[in-house]
Amino acid sequence: MILHDYDYEIYASLREEAQDKLKITYVADRYGNYIPDIENITSAQEEWLLKKVEEARKIKVNVSSLPPYLSIPERIWHYTFWIICGAVLFFLIFPLLVIIPLSFNEVPFFTFTKKMLAFDPDGYSLQWYNDFFTSLNWQGAVRNSVFIAFFATIISTFLGTLASLGLSRPHMPYRTLIMSLLISPMIVPLIISAAGMFFFYSRIGLQGTHLGVILAHAALGTPFVVITVTATLTGFDNNLIRASQSLGAPPTTTFFKVIVPLITPGVISGALFAFVTSFDEVVVVLFVGSYKQRTIPWQMFSGIREQISPTILSAATLLILITIGMLTTLELLRRRTERLRGVTPS
Fold first, then answer.
1. What whole-number distance in Å separates Cα of residue 126 and Cα of residue 311?
2. What gap in Å lies between CA 83 and CA 316, rounded to an integer?
3. 153, 274 contact by CB (below 8 A)
């Protein structure tokens, strides 16, 4: 008996006890002797099926094996596809792999020294991380980034969630047009949005203020909240709202006790996207901000132009770690959302 990768994917998703009949039916269908009435099989047939299942459990999976029915061009494309994916991942990840070790450089240069290449402990140092955490310029940039991103996230999460709830209603007029307007900050080139905000803020006195930067970043983060919360509401069962109303619950209770717990993973995911968008944004803050609103990306951009220092690499490494942590959180929230909707997490 020959089993392939897709066979084991099905077996891995089956429980040992609860779905034995489904397992038996699948093996029978996959390897012949299909028995339509699984409830009334004979003892000999059941013994044959269980023997197939036990053989399947004992076989060691060869992940690299391909289905035997693939033609030669399909096999070539399979390996070519993996090569292309590997090349793209290498192109995206390799710069990060270079930045991290360079942030521990002993000398103030953006190059690998002989001691570093020889893995000599004397060639590595934490001085640039110490400079990041002790420098007044960098600490001011950190405080500004956290302050601006925090309040921009609150505003964008509030507005995006309300917009998603309105767009999820079945008879919402002009839904497509409103959705297009809400996600337009993701489509319009950032330099155009920044220039427009600069001229608008200059007229109303918000240019060069924390409030102006917060509102600008909130506008950029709202589309991410709208998209994630709207996707969460796609599988929402409106019968839950009707059931709550039929039991006499007021709209406020229905919202906080029924709707909010189910859309919370999507709201948190959108908030994290909005926070990262604000925390990493540099173009808009260069236009609408001033030195008092100097953020980490602005400090890094200025450092590259004015004073090249490996402290920039240490800041970049910390941002990479923060991003990895947030992506991990998003993945956990995604799995929780799928479990709430009755979908097996992939």
1. 10
2. 29
3. yes
217 against 98, higher pLDDT: 217
Q: Report the pLDDT averaged over residues 296-302.
A: 87
- Whole-angstrom distance, CA of residue 261 vs CA of residue 268: 11
Torsion of CA 264, 268, 271, 276, to 10 degrees: -170
Mean pLDDT computed over 84-99: 89
Torsion of CA 157, 162, 163, 164, to 10 degrees: 90
Q: At what angle do helices 210-234 and 190-204 cross, to 10 degrees?
A: 130
Segment 177-210, tens digit of pLDDT: 888 888 888 888 889 999 999 999 999 988 889 9
Q: What's the predicted TM-score (pTM) here? A: 0.69
The confidence score (pLDDT) of residue 7 equals: 47
Contacts of 119 by beta carbon, 8 Å cutoff, 6+ apart:
none
- Exposed, middle or buried, 214 (CB in 10 Å: 0-12/13-18/19+)? buried
Residue among 62, 63, 56 at smallest CA distance from 31:
56
Sequence-distant (6+) residues with CB within 8 A of 110 are: 102, 308, 310, 313
Q: Alpha-carbon distance 86 to 189, whole Å?
A: 29
Residue type at position 212: G
Domain ranges of the chain: 5-58, 72-123, 136-308
Q: How many whole angstroms separate alpha carbon 155 and alpha carbon 33? A: 62
Helix (H) or strand (E) holding 265: helix 260-280
In this structure, whether the domain defined by 136-308 belongs to CATH 1.10.3720.10 is answered with yes
Q: How far is CA 243 from CA 240, 247, 287, 326, in A?
A: 5, 6, 50, 36
